[in-house]
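Quick question about two entries, pasted in order.
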Amino acid sequence: MPLSPGDRLGPYEILAPIGAGGMGEVYKARDIRLDRIVALKKSKTDFDPRFEREARAVAVLNHPNICTLHDVGSDYLVMEYVEGAELKGPLPLPKAIELACQILDAIDAAHRKGITHRDLKPANILVTKSGVKVLDFGLAKMERAQGLVLAADAPTAISIEGTITGTIYYMAPEQLQGKPDVDSRADIFAFGCVLYEMLTGKRAFEGSNVASVIAAVMERPAPSVGEVAPASLDRVIKKCLAKDPDERWQNARDLKTELAWAVEAPAATHHPQQTRGYSLGIIGTAAAAIALSAAVMSWAPWKAVPEAPKPVRFQIAPAPGVKVANAFSLSPDGTRLAYPATGADGVFRLWMRAMDTLESRAVPGTEGLLAAPFFWSPDSRWVVFEAGGKLMKADVAGGPPQTICAVSATVVSGSWVSHGRNGDGAIIFGNSGGIGGIHRVSPEGGDPVPVTALNQARKDNFHTQPVFLPDGRHFLYFVNSATPENSGIYLGSLDLKPDRQNHTRLLATATGADFVPNGGGNGGTILFLREGTLLAQQFDIRRLKTIGEPMPLAEQVGNYRSFGFFSASANGALVWRGVSTGATSQLVWFDREGKRLGAQGDAHVLGDIALSPDAMRVAAVRTEGSNPDLWLTTFSGGLVSPGTDVRFTFDPTRDSRPVWSPDGEHIAFSSDRAGTVDLYQHASNGAGRDELLLKSGHTKEVTDWSRDGRWLLYSDLDAKTRHDLWVLPMDGVTPGQPMPLLRSDFDELSARFSPDGHWVAYQSDETGRYEIYVRPFPAPAGGGGRWAVSQGGGMQPRWRGDSKELFYIAPDGDVMAIPVSGGGGAFQSGRSTALFRNLPNPPGWDAAPDGKRFLFPVPVGDAQETPFNVVLNWMSLIRK
């Protein structure tokens, strides 16, 4: 919460706000002990890594041109209060050189302490009556060096391979490329940009957007100051701005010496207006000749055509401490990247990163966002997503999300076109689950109406991921068909009735496409995936036909169901992500005290696991390629038997949530092989084929099988009521009709039958966080009661084999145990105790029936989020 004048933070009284940024707010304050004015920088959260870096960096720097650190609080820094103005140009040459030498003194002092600033820019340099003050070491990279001692656990750098650190107008090429070995020579490059701006009043590298600025830094030659400064000084700046760090000045002290020499150089090296011994008439004649020559050359037909911009590639990492979901989207103007992710607080929401900054921020009000792909308004102001069964739009500048309409099925991406100055137009969006085709709604709200209809002859499952063409009437969309040869990209029109749309497939693919106009002409480019390769297909907008053959842009691009991991904008920016393999894990048994009883087998990418009723086998979700399958592992003497790892399912889709029948003869599981996540079973000995148990238009996750074999328990995702609990009768030759067990406005997940068949334990977020509850089964007349078991949060309940103890995972990762009883039809629970600590919210785990052993997939090695790959000027890759 922002501070107000009069508030106190320790011994510091807030006087007035000064500014705010990604790290927090800055205030003018008074130290009531010493009666002095200070600048107080308060973090938005507890002391974050950037604050710690700045504190450590500034604390070891004692220099008149570097802002002094007075004090450090729990979540704030107290700095010297500097009265001055931000450095701005153009400045007279003598004044510019005077201030430049002071800046070099400051960064030389930092470099000698092993500190690279990495964000040197005019905004971080204040000009006071006594000279300059260099500020903001929040992005500093610190190396162990003489005079600098870091704690053993102190971070030595903010950047990891693949991340951009700095401000793009002043960043060295090696920073833009995300190289991990950026050193003090990056500050030399930034200083060259600052000095150029001091002399000319303009940035050294300009552009109309982020992509063009980065391309200018990477490719454009260093600009000249020859019109306002001596030629010798021009040489100094150009060497500062060399693309290769080895070609720059190697340290700030030598650069300062060279700078002083440049302005004191012989007159012959100076700018013509400063050169003595030349008459103004001669200079004027020469200037006229040069101007005439330039005019002729600009007209001459033999003038060389400028070379097209080359593609520039680099990587950016997701926000630290977040787990990114599969979907992401680049804004139409290419300035923002949005992606859904789970933050360190465990909340799933939308995150936003401006492409010219270093930090991602969570978008308030997007909690409850579905992981399905989302989309942008054409002016890049709004992002549209589904939450709580509603299609919503959020202003990226802030404010609560606004409801557009209610939806009856999961929204899978869409497109927004503007038809007027007021932004009116149309939104079209796709559904999953066989509910219908593409729908249309006004951006201002209303009832959605169908635009396309499922084609029964084509065996359509669903239509998704529409994208408007420039005319605002036609659009491309993806058809998922039960017949693979019919799946692909089709052309639709707002002017046709749903059942009259064109039935000719444009492109064969298993995922949706993106479309980018080619510079306002009659052409455009369709981007789509085919077997992991991102392809670009030229498209004639007037004739509505493809042109030529598709050309490859990138390989090993990932996808999740019908969504490909790529997004492009008209300004030449392309973002894609590879296949995320995840962290590898080993199956490990633990006793009740948390003692490891031995690692089981090799490490794999593991998900859900389920022990057989006799605890001699385990079914595990395991990813060997792009999609997970089920594998079976057999134990012998508590350990994995050699050679018993066998693959159980083979369908090229995503199989998950294995559940054993009480006799161990069958395994039920969830799979999306028919367009929606449905329920299947297969004999545990591998014989026969997968058997479809239940298909519907909703996503279903099987969670348990009753011990008497009569009921299959599963969660059903409803657009209005979220995850509900249902049971499927299994006491006949074929499954019976499913029946609802618990439907509410909250999530009910991970449900488990008690072994005696009287109770169901599950997790629900009805209090705002997941807790463990127990209900009777079957529910008596009137619905029966329900009992809260956990306190302080709980997930993934498991029963002991005699139904007298319940286990669950606390938010901090503790494995909790609580005694329970159900005598006389009334459920009772005792006091929960922590057995041992594992991972918070593990992907899967299970307890042996005796309650003495617990099986967990334990990560092996460090897990890293897959970075975003950025390609600027990507269109040059397809030009002939």
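Here is the second entry:
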Amino acid sequence: MTDQAYPAALLAPARGGLAGERRPVSAWIALLLAALAVAATAGAVYLSAASNHAPDPLGHAVLSVVVCLSFVGAGLVALRRPPFVRFGFLLVAVGFSSLLGSLHDANLASVYTIGVLTANLVFAVLVHALLAFPHGRLRTRSNRILAAVAYANVLALQAVSVLFDPLTRWASDHPRNVALIDSHPSLATALAEVEAAVALVLAVAVAWMLYRRTRMKSSLARRQLAPVVLGGTIALLAFAAGLVVAPISSRAAVIGIGLGLLASLALPAAFLVVLLQSRLSRAAVGELLVELREEGTAAELERALRRALGDPSLELARRGIDGAYHDARGDPLALPEAGDQRVATPVRHQGEPIGMLVHDGSLRLRPELLDGVAAAAGLALANERALETVQTVEERNTALLDAIPDLMIRVSRDGTYLDVRANDAPSLVRPVEELLGANVRDFLPADVADHVLACVARALDTGAMSSVEYELTIDGVARCLESRMVPSGDGEVVTIVRDFTVQRRAEVEERRLAEEQAALRRVATLVAGNAAPEEIFQTVTEEACTLLGIRSALLVRYGESETGMIVGKFGDPTTDFLLGSPLELDEGAALTVLRTGAPVRVAYDEVDSEIGRRMLSLGYRWSVGVPITVAGSTWGALIAALRADEALPPETKRRLQAFAELVGLALASAQARDELAASRLRIVEASDAERRRLERNLHDGAQQRLVALSLALRLAQAKVRQAPVEAEELLNGAAEELGEALTELRELARGIHPAVLTDRGLGPALEALAARAPLPVALEVRVEERLPEQVEAAAYYVASEALANIVKHANAGSAVVRAERVDGRAVIEVEDDGVGGADTGRGSGLGGLRDRVETLNGTLDVASPLGRGTLVRAALPVRAPAGDAAARERSRVVDS
């Protein structure tokens, strides 16, 4: 969270006060208020001293002076300090209102009456001040209601009471009530008791409110509020008690109200204590600065700040580069929202926010201390940042030094080791003590030593850096090294040796992956081009061997009874395994792949089989095989054989599997093409057969009748005049012949597409079909609504062809036809109790049905176990276009 996103009121500097706080009043206004307070106090003292009826003039005068000057004095101090300006006005108001009780001692009737009317106003102002402590605002609705009730009680209710009170209950010889309009002592007393009761309830409510507010505060705020809560509660209860006993005893009332005013002095006293603590904040900040010089860790810095502010919950948040704030542990710290008890004070250095103090909100009442601690924290964080910068630079320099290869050697022109610095001992061909004074030819291979000495000479002759790359086997590990040499003195060089074995291996792996992808792309291009499977088999075998550096491999297609055929071959042996030859599977990679369907690795000396002994005799030690899967079944295997001098390339199984998957894809594609071609051929053959059937039926039936009809009509035409009786007989015969021809044509049309299917739907069509069957057929049709026309036709012909096959081949006694709609699919089943064993590959009937069903994205399944009958099941997706009903109606009209 950034400063810009955080509420401005919470980020405001503490010295500026809280958001919306009034500015301090000017000095002359404060002097004017002080003068008024002194004058008013003097007047109150005079009234008490000159009173003819005051019960205790001296005590009342002293009380007036102490209470008024204490509250007004504390209020004047608050008016000069921005966070407390509003509260200062309330303190001054309490002081001045406390003097109104002195008017009750006046000898003048009018002044005395004003004193009676306003004597209790100090109670309401005191309630207001206690509820608004220390900010001077009534922040909640309940506080505002309590204050309003208090003012209404001591002013409105008191004024009504005075209008009817002759004041006869007071024993002293006081002046008369000039505001009296009608004497009703009982009514006045009742109103006074109501006022006292309301005051008592208000006192208890305010005390409870202050107690609740204190409980909700932090321990730091509770310490500041405790004297206010205690003194305010005592003051209000004592004042209310004085009002309660006033109708009974004037002396008791004076004592109660006086004690209440004395107890209320806790309010200005607590305020002055807060100010005194702020004045002492400079010493606390000075101690904090001294302490921060000794604190080291982030946690210790935070503890020092907590001690300085007296807030055990304080947290110091550091601002990161991204603008977010983090606590002492480095975890993200969520800053408080507006209105929380905890607030955030920015920690700045040279005007830049570098941190945040998250502390109790009551510390805003001590702005000097808060400002000083924030400034000290800013210095500490700035020093911490500077130290981190230095450490970062030091770590960066150390990292740069560490980045220099560990092995540094000083060598003379003739190859003598003069000095060796090696933090990485495994990089040395010998320990350091053995190298010093020895020659490079003593430890390095001859060719490597020649290259190294040539590089030394080149660096010394040219005066520039020279480098040489070479390979060394150190502790059985092959390493790729580079030596960079620069002249370092007369006849000597300093060489820095880098080990970049990892980089070289990465480059080799990258080239290997590129070659593998290229080989796979070549095979994939053949597959995508619909190349012949034989070409793909051979190409895959060759590409796999070339890529892996293997000299021999076979691609085997599995047959029945654990046999196979070699359909792809690369490398030796040329005479033992010929392309296209059958293969009897024995214990080995091919048989294991067939049985497990998973990649395997087999060592020939670990299997007891003829093929294992045969491969060992040819010089092969082990083989690796991966399955080729088509439609979920293991179709064959790609087998790579390795000789004793051949190492198994990295990830051989995975890389062979990639080629095997391409073979499976090619086979699936070829199978799909074959099925498509066969389906098209069946459609053509079925169309031709149906065309020939129609031609034969028309020729043998309706055509012959129409020819005879034509001859009869010509004969009738010739005899219509000479022999009308014979002509009439001929015409009658022609009419009968025409009727027969129409009947045959209608039957022929129904054979093409049954009219009942178009007119009435699938259910009635199946009923008609079952009725014409020569064996009992039970119907279970649960399709109430009409289905799309193509779906109904396909379902009808599935049932028709299945029943025809049952009659011809099943030797069944009965059959069942079921039709229902399930989950958006039309399902048609035909089941018989015949001999079973139906072969879907023979004949064209079921093949044509399968084509018709699959054209509609449906499925056709045939289950025909021997001796258990045959079940033909077709499932057709139902998609009913809006125009199907209209299309059926047009078809029905045309057929009719």
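Reply: The radius of gyration is 56 Å. The first strand starts at residue 315 and ends at 319. Hope that helps.
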